[in-house]
Amino acid sequence: xxxxxxxxxxxxxxxxxxxxxxxxxxxxxxxxxxxxxxxxxxxxxxxxxxxxxxxxxxxxxxxxxxxxxxxxxxxxxxxxxxxxxxxxxxxxxxxxxxxxxxxxxxxxxxxxxxxxxxxxxxxxxxxxxxxxxxxxxxxxxxxxxxxxxxxxxxxxxxxxx
Length: 161
Prior knowledge:
By secondary structure, the protein is an alpha+beta fold. Helix content is about 30%, strand content about 30%. The chain contains five helices and five strands. It has helices at about 5-20, 25-30, 45-60, 125-130, 145, and strands at about 30-35, 65-75, 75-85, 100-115, 115-125. The chain has a five-stranded mixed sheet.
């Protein structure tokens, strides 16, 4: 496949996810797909079926869209810089629904083999995502929000440790 065909494949992948069309993954993703950066939720499978589980989980809990900002392709790899938008409508594992608007940036590398996505590596703004879910305090949060009871200076020890 050409570089442009590979980029189109990745764009279609995100467009189908945004539509909630997980059945399209059978055409777009290799059965033995490898996600080198899976979400940290227990019990998710591997391969294409594991990918479907992940996207079903996020589609139901945080429906939204992906906006592709940039794409670069060379050989069998496509690098995509994107922003994902959604709403935390339903629970994620261990994280009750908040109703919060969500925005997360990511840089994703897909490797294409035989016209399908075969591997993925990604670097996501997980800290910002967890802050938007209320799991981590936002910058400027209070010590109570972060679990710290006092500000420590250089060389000082936390008496609670």
